[in-house]
Amino acid sequence: MSPAVPLPAAPLLELRDLDVSFRTEGGWLRAVQGLSFTLGAGETLAIVGESGSGKSVSALSVMRLIPDPPGKITGGDILYQGQSLLGFSERQMRQLRGNDISMIFQEPMTSLNPVLSIGQQIGEAIRLHQGADRPEARARALDMLRLVQIPEAEKRLDAYPHALSGGMRQRVMIAMALACGPRILIADEPTTALDVTIQAQVLDLMRDLKDRTKAAILLITHDLGVVAEMAERVIVIYAGRKVEEGPVRDLLRCPRHPYTRGLLGAVPRLGASLKAEKAGRLLEIPGTVPRLDQPIIGCAFAPRCAYAVDRCHRERPPLEARDPGHLAACWRAHEMEPL
Amino acid sequence: MLAYAIRRLLATIPVMVIVAIIVFSLLYLTPGDPAAVLAGEQATADDIARLRLALGLDDPFLVRFGHWVAGVLRGDLGTSVFSNRPVLDLIVQRLEPTVALTAASLFIAVLIAVPLGVVAAWQSGRIIDRLAMGFAVLGFSMPVFVLSYLLIMLLSVEWNVLPVQGYVPIAYGFWPWATHLLLPALSLGIVNAALIARITRASMLEILGQDYIRTARAKGLSAPAILIRHALKNAAVPIITVIGISFALLISGVVVTETVFNIPGMGRLVVDAILRRDYPVIQGIILIFSMAYVLINLLVDLSYGLFDPRIRY
User: Fold this and answer.
1) Contact at CB, B219 and A105, closer than 8 angstroms
2) What is B96-307's CATH topology?
């Protein structure tokens, strides 16, 4: 029975102070530290960061797919529709995976099973979660292939992944992920491995399908160009911590964290190299992501930061709101001008 | 596929020719005189010389080899020096026990090894993995005859559940046949299982680290579905290959096992033939064994396409 007065809706997905660590020979490596965010129904939230920043790990932990050992969720909570996923049994998680929450991965070349046909791989989730028999699952798989605009879908149903191009394989991955009508689609670098023209097609397709399916998207990427195209809200993470969060427009117009500014500087712009004064090199952020197996004192980004002052090396800046809905963890966030 | 099979079959001909040359020369070069064995202890030097002439043992190597090959091509493997009967007849008589023992051993080996390897890979690094691989090392390092006697002691002498030795043809009923076969097939199977289990584990471990296994988990599939449907089919090619290779191991194991369990098969036949220097019989059996090995491995190669659609001939 549903209550007469609807309760304030819990967000579809909420991460609260999530800690994920990996056991290494040198001790525990803290890949994600105190990460919190919410994802509303139908929303697209982007998580942005460099390789090794913990963005894929946080995505995998939502599915509870962190390989354990060596990985472990060591703190915090993950709530799906207000229920803690950490309290779910493995069987309950399996019912959720591929059904309520599904995922597409970065490498379409290796993320499909080479010895099973496309139709089998799409149909499998439909049979598992919706109890469809083989012919039903096959028919549904065919619908999905048409939905992701794969030409000659009937023929592709019995094809094996090696007969498909990278872009087609990523479409198959998307078809697979959407087969059971999930409420959340986690897309981990969905276009990174693709050619630029194919990237644009796949992004168009994802936007189109999002409008049709009303699924929320958690988009993991390092590419702020993709973020600008797809997302409504952005979270920037660095060394396992959230350093900035905001609506995509605000954040791209006036990034409050020097790391975000650095990432934006590292985005190649069409025609940029034609300007005489900027000819030649791309801007890049000097240095590398710090080691996570040792405690970090102060701001993790300070050693690479052009704005760093003494205080940054001593004290970690708290995450504070600068504009409505726009948070940044930087002692000098108030000094940052719009780009 | 058919064209490939025929090509591969033709390619076995040079292999068989080389095997034939080696088999024939090996026995030609080994010391000892079949004529002397045949003539018995009372024979004079003259008797032996006459016998050698009659058997053609004094002809040049190439002439003798030529006679033998011409015979083999007609399906005539020669005549046993000892029993004076056609070698092919002797082999056909002994075929059933050996085929039954080999097939049953291979079946038991695969039945033990593949699940063991799969579970070990799944539980990699945990106690089940260690136990399984400990068992594999033990099985592999134990000679067949030691294991045979241990099993006889336990199952036949102590518990009295299986016959100690001997063979009953399947024509006399399935149950007597199976009970007599179980113990030898088990001893031979366990030794082979060890090798296959290790390869299965290694191959599965590699596959379980692949991206598409993560995809399968993200779909919500259960562990058995992932292990069998997604992983084992990918891991099959190395496993099938080692099963083919272990067939060679099995053949040498058959000789020992048939002797231990007193099974009148080809293994016993070849041991007896060696003791009697009965060259034609030895040659015939080794030739048949080699042919079987080559054919089994041809089948193995052809089966790859069943498991991996990327392999096409």
Assistant:
1) no
2) MetI-like fold (1.10.3720)
